[in-house]
Amino acid sequence: MTIKKINEQEWAQGVYEKICAKMLATAERNRHKIPYTAENGVFDDQAVTNPCWWTNGFWGGILWQLYHATGNELYREMAEEVEDKLDLCLMEHRGMDHDSGFRWLPTSVVNYRLTGNEKSYNRARLAADNMAGRYNPAGRFIRAWNDWGDGQKTGWAIIDCLMNLPLLYWAWEQIEDPRYLRIATDHADTAMKYFIRPDGSAKHIVEFDPGTGEYVCSHGGQGYGHGSSWTRGQAWALYGFTLSYIHTKNPEYLACAKRVANYFLVNTPDCALVPVDFRQPSDCALEDSTAAAIAACGLLEIAKCVEGREQEIYHNAAVTLLYTLDTERCDWDESRDSIVQKCTAAFHDAKHEFPIIYGDYYFIEAIWKLTGHEIFIW
Ligand code: GLY
């Protein structure tokens, strides 16, 4: 990837203002929804179609970031409505999986941090306890998904789970019960050992024997195939190990995050637009902008943990990814919902390159990091 030289402060402030203007119009049009995607510039509503979907916390996260930056009560009221709607998942065991971090950190935990809301504390503790209950002590990993009638996933762990661990770090920090810390760090250690290849690339899914904990095999998952390198998985690993370092100060996690980051940067094309898989066929141009936005957040956090030239490299790489999204992949038309375009959920899905809510969330989080408006959610 070629690093672009830009006037960072002026550019980031301009993007911040564009986000504020577009999101105010978007929020006013979508007061009671929980969006996942937009069709023809109109947000869908997962609260109606899929109330326990793993992405249903990101809209709340966007609203809290906007509330923190602007103080506009509209955002707080809307974020609290999202949080209320997630309650039914806490009462539905099939609605609960390892993605509790993605759902309750950007909603209940951030609400509790900002307002001290006891109801939010209660929800986040319930979600953390449920997540801790997915721990497999034989394999020292957190079980990812439930079974969907397409085979047993009892022994499956996935790279994305690193981003959910901060819910356990939060619970540990709240009540100083070391069990939460132990489960989170066991999972992170297992991920370092079995998911990260020597070149810094990450496997998406690793299957363990759920009884003995032994490694069985890996699966290509949402990437191109077995042995490939799904870019969003790389981004989850990059940011996820950085977060484990931030919470524990274990230098092995930072070293691992840097290894994954270096692989990400070396494999990102010069144009700084990120493919769906770094090993997809060379005649395939499919992109996933979410991987760029998530990686940018992680790179900005790594940059804060290192010094000198290294700091400059990670920071400027993040800015290049974000500048490229802003100038080439963002829709700034205020009459249309969603900002970041060309996002892809999975390589082998029928549909590619569409707006996805976490593309917007991580893009906003990254710009907030650059402009000093962020409330740290993870
Ligand atoms: N955590 C699922 C995904 O990244 O698509």
TrEMBL record:
Keywords: Hydrolase. Pfam families: Glyco_hydro_88. GO terms for molecular function: chondroitin hydrolase activity. It comes from the Bacteria. SUPFAM superfamilies: Six-hairpin glycosidases. Substrate binds at D99, D160, R232, W236. The active site is at D99, D160. Coiled coil: none annotated. One of its GO terms (biological process) is polysaccharide catabolic process. Belongs to the glycosyl hydrolase 88 family. This is Glycoside hydrolase family 88 protein. It comes from Candidatus Eisenbergiella merdavium.
